Amino acid sequence: MRATLNQLEAFYWIARLGGFHAAATRLNLTQPTVSLRIRGLEEALGLRLFERSGRQARLTTEGRHLLPQAERMVGLAEELQLKTALSDP
What we know:
Layout: H1 5-17, H2 20-27, H3 31-45, E1 50-53, E2 56-59, H4 61-87
Antiparallel strand pairs: 1-2
């Protein structure tokens, strides 16, 4: 199974905002949906990405290594969406 852009986007926002609930709010999703995306991403990569403590989520070493790549991918996806929106008459 491959990692999806939706999973990487959830990962990115959890890392940036510090929690699953905050990321869910930012993505306009439910917290269980965000949790499922992260579980799928961790299974696809065979890595544990977060240390969970209540509503807080801290990156593991593996998560810290993945973050720059996820950041680039999310940025490229946003750039593509913006470019498409601007060129649509």
